[in-house]
Amino acid sequence: MASLTLRIPDVLEKQLEAQSKERGISKSDVVREAIERDLKVQAWRKLREEFRPHLEREGVFTEADVMQRLGEEL
Questions:
Q1: 61 CB contacts (<8 Å, ≥6 apart)?
Q2: Please, are residues 39 and 33 in contact by the beta-carbon 8 Å criterion?
Q3: 55 close to 49: Cβ distance less than 8 angstroms
Q4: What is the end-to-end Cα distance of the chain in Å, rounded?
Q5: Which of 37, 3, 5 has the alpha carbon at shortest distance from 19?
Q6: Would you list the domain boundaries of the chain?
Q7: Per residue, what are the HEC states of the chain?
Q8: Looking at residues 59-74, what average pLDDT do you find?
Q9: What is the pLDDT at residue 74?
Q10: pTM of this prediction?
């Protein structure tokens, strides 16, 4: 596993420490989970933008539209 050193504001470090203690996991685990979550969100946004024109042509504009279509197909 790779290692990364970064500098964060004191207030963020205090929040990180509190989250770590509250959840009973290391600060590294909290940060790793946050990075993974953010990368997934960014990938989802990119994918959504790529497919937006195709979906809009099919009348799909919201996540509710997607869920409705999925329900119809199930």
A1: 55
A2: no
A3: no
A4: 41
A5: 37
A6: 25-73
A7: CCCCCCCCCHHHHHHHHHHHHHHCCCHHHHHHHHHHHHHHHHHHHHHHHHHHHHHHHCCCCCHHHHHHHHHHHC
A8: 85
A9: 57
A10: 0.72
Paired tokens of 53: 């024109």
Vertex 18 angle, CA 33 and 15, to 5°: 75
Q: Is the pLDDT of residue 29 over 70?
A: yes
**In whole angstroms, what is the distance from residue 9 CA to residue 13 CA?**
6
Q: In whole angstroms, what is the distance from residue 37 CA to residue 34 CA?
A: 5
Whose structure tokens read 């205090």?
14
Q: What integer pLDDT is reported at residue 6 of this predicted model? A: 94
Rounded Cα–Cα distance for residues 65 and 56 (Å): 10
pLDDT confidence band for 49 (50 / 70 / 90) = very high
